[in-house]
Write the structure tokens for this entry.
Amino acid sequence: MTPMADGRYLRGELKWADPVHPVFLAQEVATGAEKWAWCLAETATKGLGTDERRMLAHLVRRALLAVPPRLGIPWLGAEWVGFEGGTLWWVTDAIPGAVRLDETSVTLDTLERDRWAQRLLLIIEQWHAHGWIHGDVTPRAVFLDEDGRPWLGGMGVARNWLADRLDQDDLTDPTPEGRDRRRMHLPSRDLFALAALLDGLHPPTGPDALTPWRALDPAVRPVNAMQARSAWAFESVPPSLPTWRHLDAIRVALQDLKFARRECPACGDVLEDPKPAKANTCPVCLAGRWSAYQAREGMCPACQTGVLRHRTTSKRRPACPECDRGLLIKTKTGWKCAWCHAQPDTGTLTERELFICEDCDQALAPAADKTWQLGPDGDAWTMREWAELAATGEMGLGNGMCPKCDARGHTENGYFTLLSPLTGSGYERGYSLRALRKDIVPWVAVGQTTANPGLVCRSGDVEFDTTPQGLKLVRAESNPIAEHLGQIHDLGTWHRIARDLPTAEEEDDLEELFNDALRLAYGQGELGLDGEANALCWSGRAVWVKDGHRRSGTLRITPDRIQFRGWLRRHMGLVSQLKGMDFDGERLFVMWRESEADWEFEVTPIRWNLVLPSGRRKLELTASDLARRFAVPERSRPG
Ligand SMILES: [Zn+2]
Ligand SMILES: [Zn+2]
Ligand SMILES: [Zn+2]
Ligand SMILES: [Zn+2]
């Protein structure tokens, strides 16, 4: 057993193997309670620069401090975080009898799946509330307790940064963002991962409540856990058949389709062909000049203005017998320890050293792992880290900043990582905490996230790459266009898609659908020969057939009457007396409710000339259309 955290815990054997965050069994000394000790594995950071490694460890530390454990939230947050022997460690509660989800074959029914979703959303929401992305909602980070309830542990902060920095695909990452390293990382990435996780345990049979969480473009998923929860009740309604009116409106819109040469199909703003930002321009505000910190060792981290002076024991500065670390300073009232502030009567000459600030008298005493501690209850960091803290005011914010917008970041080995801010509307939206190659950063800063030439909307909602075949949509933040991510079309087609209009190839289908819809509207009595006036149902040549005799004439039907005029002969019936009509090829049967025998005709198809908002339209109507319009109601048909 190895003591940790000044003897607060004892660390034992490996509990959960993992290449980035292995977990060890641990025990809290005071209570004997079982704990888990996690670390950022040294092997995972092989090949990185010393400062990069430290930056990454501080990043994980920042995330752990930002999202602490909370009652009622099934998240294995850190109750202690610190460096031991140069490695970042943190200690969480242990789950008795736990199994890790990737080592089980659990399946869920619908009810259980919904419970899991609600439970895990609680944690994801905590992360998002602080501007962080969990980034590893995968079976290897989910632990089941003895009652089979899921707990989330671990995090993707380091995993994702390492995947970017070392350009290594993480095969267990189910998200589209995880497979394509140029894409934005937004909180909705966690929702995609959660939906994928739940689908793995309860395969859906069709579109369901989780489907919108899995939209390809993160910008059209629910934005965060809160929105996802409120959208939970969402039920997809099957689209109804388009009516002729709807299709007519589409045809009108197609005729009216106009757009400027460089118009954004999604929002109407201008599509630009932006030049990458100038080297060393701040990618966040695009105005400030990125500058490296002047982190000078020896600046006081407490007041940030004083200079630290190295002092060792002497007769004028004897050692403090109380804390065994500080040096005593002579004051008006006697000796006082610069480090623990004790006031002993006398000191010793045992060898001690201390850094004391000339301005504020704060003192740093040597501690474990070549670190220096600020006062008995203070933090212990290396002198290099104290210098960083003195220069930046906060630990782990990298080695550079923008004086204009106060963005912070780390540049090393040709990679840039934006460390602050975490949220906003520029580069930081989707690219903070990402290791991006330095030559890519100026492109991403102007919205060209693929770093390929192309068009970007001035309001930032759409990005196209230029390809020989046309414009490839690589980013879109609104539907319907976002559903077509990855497709290549010319700008005209993109405008059609954005307005939910058929493409040129789909227009033939539209015409066919339109004819069907018009015929249906005629059959349902919604449109007449005279269109929407609907005062004439039929008018055309017909042959009256009775007892082997045939007589030619005209059949004319209005909403009230059915008339046949032949040479010397007329027949008239009221529609209100009609039982219904039936047909067989060109033969039409008119059946009456009472007394009268059925009428039988041979009907010549007629031309239906319509004048509609989208223009003139010619269709042919036959006996079958007419018979459908006056069909015998289902229930009164003889069985
Ligand atoms: Zn736009
Ligand atoms: Zn800036
Ligand atoms: Zn002391
Ligand atoms: Zn000071």
